[in-house]
Specification:
The complex is a heterodimer of chains A (about 775) and B (about 160). Chain A has 19 helices and 33 strands. With about 775 residues, chain A is an alpha+beta fold. In chain A, the strands form nine sheets. Chain A has an eight-stranded mixed β-sheet, sandwiched between helices. Chain A has a five-stranded mixed β-sheet with strand order 9-18-17-16-10, sandwiched between helices. Chain A is globular. Chain B is about 35% helix and about 15% strand. The chains are: A alpha+beta (about 775), B alpha+beta (about 160).
Chain lengths: ~775, ~160
């Protein structure tokens, strides 16, 4: 058996069970006596509930429980209001419905069909209210209010405490960032650029819809099997809602069929628990595809960006206002807005800034985390405008980016020092990959006339980005060395496809010299594994990887101490290599040391590792991010000048990964993020008509398929090690997605000279822009 | 009114009592306990529920169970025999053609049907044939590589025997 290592591709531990169809996802699971739950949802974007009566549904044969607002408002054991940042959500609507699809009632029945049929027997009288359909409506003077009041929890996320809703408005939060002197900055500028960029709401579209099985014991003990990326946050929220200590809530998470940010924070869990509690038996709720669209979306945004530039291309001032449509509930929108604000300067040194980033309530389904978390919104504006500036100044877009881009030791907009910054290498790598011609600007713009026909024009575009990870945060790990020298790893990191099980096993195996075949990474069960904040923000390899590394080192320490004691050798004379304990006179297997310690074949050594990041780094410097993500992307496109049809010819990503622990796994994440970015760039868009979501299905909401793929996608791992990551590794899950849309828009401009400022980049927009130009 | 149907599932004779509106996917998952095929879109576009009926790929979410009376149905669970995996399963692991795994059984079964129809497909034929399966994790490039590898080596033919 080959010893575990890092920097080397190993077959993923989750693969065999997945390719054989044996892996159990939530909708494949059932428990004895399980009932089936269905949810009645609002068909109005905004309405007062005058009356709701579930009595007819209750009498329907096979129905066990009907849950309405009466059950949560007048129940001692339930706190009706919850939410990750503000307590503005309820399990079912209490006074108003605030978006189409807002849960109004739920039924638990013997079969899913009976539950579905019973929903139609629930009488609801709505009084329709004017709806806030977009951020423009929301910000009018004397607007209709989505929330008349918003409850603020006593304690919340440390990084969001300064953000509060503004009374009498639909502003959920307003994040401000000021740097230097904005007026002086613009006064020094030779050119000023002002543009508005927009992008629509989109949906994560994991193939596995949200689902939950909940069981509530008579004593109040709650067990949920959940499709969640952050089981410990769900545990806390359920404990608060149902007024029990966290020890009385058990959250079990099987493999997820994708997450991408859409499975963080409570989703279907509270309503399933409430149903199970009322029904007195376990209940399973599996959302339909349509319901997923009502549950969570990515923020649509309107971004006004004004930038002052000196003659030589130096960015000197930027004013930026970002309006993010957070929908009917805050969810994690306040943090999304903050992260958009932080990155509105992009990966560029701009001394004078005035950034205002808002999360805004509207009567739409809630928007929350989505792979790229606020940065794919800001980067769409930053990177599109960068090329507008380059074109106006007749500068090479690559050179302009490198002139202004961050280097090691530069100050971020928060005035903290950036470390481990592989930005420019990423830019160089993608430029090289797509054959970027650095002389292209000096030479007159002579386009290749045609590839196959005269009307096809090719162009190349580039974009880059900087992103932060959630800070402060916590990851704890436990590693157990068993009596046969095999290893069990206990963490709260959720395997949702990213390959975390394998990377965590590689790290522990590398530290202890144990082959992967002898390592088991346990599934997530909050009764068993120690605390982890969340599997999101590309944080698990960095944080949990480090925690597992520390836990493995703790085991090594214990093995050495045991050997020292049992063999009477000073500890400093003991070394460990390749899974053996080396004494001056002998070499011992771990199993031999275990036997010595416990006196028989048995016993367990338990190693522990804890990682906590804070808002100050080890040098006492401010730290808004435990590490930084840097990446670049480059696209080559072909545009049909007669029809606007766009074809992606080639796409390249380069991501500063710190250290590629599992190179194939790393490439999968980079390729996958780029492909998700292509969907966002080219066609994904949630469409609304008067507050009605009109494409909540995978026919009308189009996902990228193999038919849309360019002939070649190249993903390049740049390795600038981070001082605190395990073996220098950083997070990689989101970086490659963010540059895709602006890189393609920039390539379209390069090909045919039209600038599209509104995503997605549909043929009709290109066609109309081309027609305007003629 | 329930109807009894008889069919072959992964080579074994099975029978089932189904409602006329029961889908093939519901029958396979709920009555036979074969949960490798997943419900993704429920509209015949995502491919996660793909099964082979008489060797042809179908979206089991949109096929009625009564319509497979007398047919041979193959699911992902029937592809591997004890410790021996199908070459496509091996290649998907080797090339990293999956991440979350939710689409995987659909991709592997569709690929098997492709290689049965066309043992040495061009890259374009692979892309066209599998354009009806979504992989939201974005393993498309790796999926094409895996299928090409199996076809180049003629492994699919051996795997069928």
């Amino acid at each position: 058996m080959e010893p575990a290592d890092i920097g080397k591709t190993f077959r993923r531990l989750d693969y065999e069970t997945k390719v054989t169809g044996r892996a159990q996802y939530l909708a494949d699971m059932s428990v004895p006596g399980m009932l089936h739950g269905k949810i009645l949802r609002s068909s109005y974007p905004h309405a007062r509930i005058a009356r709701i009566d579930g009595s007819k549904a209750e009498k329907f044969p096979g129905v066990v429980a009907v849950l309405t607002r009466e059950d949560i408002l007048h129940e001692q054991g339930i706190e009706p209001f919850y939410g990750p940042v503000f307590k503005d959500q309820t399990i079912v609507a209490t006074e108003k419905v605030r978006h189409v699809g807002d849960p109004v009632a739920a039924v638990a029945a013997l079969t899913a069909d009976i539950a579905e049929a019973a929903l139609k027997l629930i009488d609801v009288d709505y009084e329709e209210l004017p709806a806030v359909l977009n951020v423009g409506d929301a910000l009018k003077t004397n607007p209709t209010l989505v929330h008349e009041t918003v409850r603020i929890p006593e304690s919340g996320f440390a990084d969001l405490t300064e953000l509060k809703p503004i009374d009498g408005t639909n502003i959920c939060t307003h994040f401000r960032l000021k740097r230097g002197d904005i007026d002086k900055g613009f006064a020094q500028a030779d050119h000023i650029f002002e543009d508005i960029f927009t992008l629509p709401a989109t949906q994560h579209s994991f193939l596995e819809t949200h689902a939950c099985i909940a069981s509530v014991e008579p004593g109040g003990r709650i067990t949920v099997w959940a499709t969640t990326q952050n089981p410990f946050v769900v545990r806390t929220q359920l404990a608060n809602i149902f007024k029990v200590p966290v020890s009385k809530v058990r959250v079990v998470v099987p493999y997820l069929g994708g997450g991408y940010g859409g499975k963080v924070y409570p989703k279907v869990e509270p309503i399933t628990v409430a149903l199970a509690r009322k029904a007195g038996g376990p209940v399973r709720v599996v959302l339909s595809r349509e319901e997923v669209f009502y549950t969570i979306t990515k923020h649509a945004a309107v971004i006004r960006m004004k930038t002052g530039v000196k003659k030589d291309g130096t960015l000197i001032a930027r004013e930026c206002e970002i309006h993010l449509d957070t929908g009917a509930y805050a969810e994690i929108g306040p943090r999304v807005a903050k992260k958009s604000g932080y990155t509105a300067a992009g990966p560029y040194k701009i001394p004078n800034l005035k950034i205002d980033s808002y999360s805004i309530y509207t009567n739409k389904p809630p928007a929350g985390a989505f792979r790229g978390f606020g940065v794919s919104q800001s980067a769409w504006a930053v990177e599109s405008q960068m090329d507008i500036i380059a074109a106006a100044l007749n500068r090479d877009p690559v050179e302009l980016r490198k002139q202004n881009g961050y280097d090691e030791g530069d100050k971020f907009v928060t005035e903290e020092t950036l470390r481990a910054v592989g930005l420019k290498e990423c830019i160089d790598q993608v430029a090289k990959s797509i054959g970027w011609d650095t002389d292209r600007i000096k030479a007159p713009k002579l386009k290749e006339p045609a590839v196959s026909a005269d009307r096809l024009r090719r162009g190349k575009g580039i974009a880059c980005m900087i992103k932060a990870t959630i800070t402060p945060s916590i990851s704890c790990a436990v590693v157990k060395l068993n009596e046969d020298a095999s290893l069990s790893i206990y963490t709260g990191t959720v395997e949702m496809g990213q390959g975390s099980e394998t990377v965590l096993a590689q790290i522990a195996g590398k530290e202890l010299g144990i082959p992967l075949q002898k390592i088991q990474v346990l599934g997530v069960d909050t009764d068993v594994v120690p605390y982890d904040l969340t599997t999101s923000s590309s944080r698990s390899t960095f944080h949990m990887g480090k925690a597992v590394q520390l836990a493995a080192q703790d085991i090594l320490r214990q093995l050495k101490q045991t050997a020292a004691k049992e063999y009477n050798v000073p500890e400093e004379k003991i070394s460990v290599a390749e899974g053996k304990i080396r004494l001056p006179e002998a070499q011992l297997d771990y199993a031999q040391v275990m036997f010595k310690r416990f006196g028989m074949q048995g016993g367990t050594l338990v190693g522990e590792g804890q990682v906590k990041t804070s808002t100050q780094d080890e040098f006492g410097d401010k730290s808004t991010s435990a590490f930084w993500f840097l990446a670049a992307g480059a696209a080559e496109v072909e545009v049909d000048v007669d029809t606007g049809k766009l074809k992606l010819v080639k796409y390249a990503s380069a991501v500063d990964v710190g250290k590629a622990l599992n190179p194939l796994g790393c490439r999968q994440q980079l390729n996958g993020a780029a492909i998700t970015g292509m969907g966002q760039a080219l066609f994904e868009e949630i469409a609304y008509d008067n507050g009605q979501l009109i494409n909540p299905n995978l026919i009308d909401y189009v996902l990228p398929s193999l038919g849309d793929m360019p002939a070649m996608i190249e993903s390049i791992a740049v390795e600038v090690p981070d001082r605190n990551g395990p073996y220098g590794a950083k997070g990689i899950g989101e970086s490659a997605l963010i540059p895709v849309a602006p890189a393609i828009a920039n390539a379209i401009y390069d090909a045919v000279g039209v600038r599209i400022k509104d995503l997605p980049l549909k043929a009709e927009k290109i066609y109309l822009a081309l027609a305007d130009k003629k | 009114m329930k109807k009894t149907i008889a069919l072959k599932v992964n080579g074994s004779a099975r029978s089932a009592e189904v409602e006329p509106r029961t889908t093939l996917l519901e029958m396979v998952r709920e009555q036979f306990g074969l949960t490798g095929a997943k419900l993704g879109c429920d509209l015949q576009v995502c491919g996660a529920c793909t099964l082979l009926v008489d060797g042809k790929p179908v979206s089991a979410c949109s096929v009625l169970a009564v319509d497979v009376d007398g047919a041979a149905v193959e699911t992902i669970e029937g592809l591997s025999a004890k410790d021996r995996l199908h070459p496509l399963q091996e290649a998907f692991m080797q090339f990293g053609a999956l991440q979350c795994g939710y689409c995987t059984s659909g991709f592997i079964l569709t690929a098997k049907a492709l290689l049965a129809e066309c043992p040495r497909p061009t890259e374009q034929q692979i892309r066209d044939y599998l354009a009806g399966n979504f992989c939201r994790c974005g393993c498309y490039q790796e999926i094409v590589q895996a299928i090409k590898d199996v076809s180049d080596q003629g492994k699919a033919v051996r795997g069928n025997s």
